[in-house]
Amino acid sequence: METTQKVDLAGSALIALTQCLGVKAGEKVLIITDEFRRKIGYTLWEKAKELGAEAMIMEIIPRKNHGEEPPEAVAEAMKRVDVFICPTTKSLTHTTARENANKAGARGATLPSVTEDMMMRTLSVDYNKVAESSLKFTKLLNEGKKVRVTTPAGTDITFSIEGRDGDPDTGLYLKPGEFGNLPAGEAYIAPVEETANGVIVVDGAMSGGGGIIEKEHIRMKVEKGYAVKIEGGKAALTLNETLDSVGPLARNIAEFGIGTNFKAIITGNILEDEKVSDTVHFALGNNAHFGGKVDVPLHLDGILLKPTVEIDGNVIIKDGKHLI
Fold it and tell me: In terms of domains, do 66 and 138 share one?
């Protein structure tokens, strides 16, 4: 059985650099952070220096939304290094800057909204096991055509993934161009646009101000790939306001993901929440950087508890338990 033992912040930074990213002496390593994640950013920078890397750090003004682009100068710098690491308040995962950096050969990891506690707890996981599970689920997504997801809270939604390629977030980004989150642990895919129909009930957590969802679940009515009606309490109101500020495309059902990190727990921080191994998640908004067609400056994830997942009629997860 896995323990919940933590390593300290410096130790977790070293794990991220060595085990997850394989940083070597002489490599150019860029840390991108902001004022609210400064301690984590500088800890990574110090450890990169100790490894003999050409370590650099850039601090940006916190972005307003997850998926908003960093400054152009930062985007250019990301393309000119061997490794980039982004502990930031808002996510740089689903950005053109990140995608272009990977296309240029940089390998990297984003750590949106990461906390010191999260790093110390989740980066000590056995990432070989996380990678194995993530790759198995990705293979099923790649081979599948139609997905149905149900939950005890009321989710019942179907969508097509035919022709789409899933991505594994293994935590091991050792080759040029490889990328993922830290902490890692998911298999995810962009549903085919305009194919999702049904109901999504977010009962775990919601990014974009929702936090942990307990009594007032967020209920989304989905028609032809869009969340046309969102109801619930305060979190649902906040979500509606955020989506309306961006425009209609922000309601796109952008992502379906399966958590595979057995040390992750629901905390209200989506970076960790979406990796919890007995959950799945759906995201709204941008999917242009992992196989979809919708490009908006927003990507918000909602976590579903105790899901049952069928791919082409075959049950691969039952009430949160992995059956593969």
Answer: no
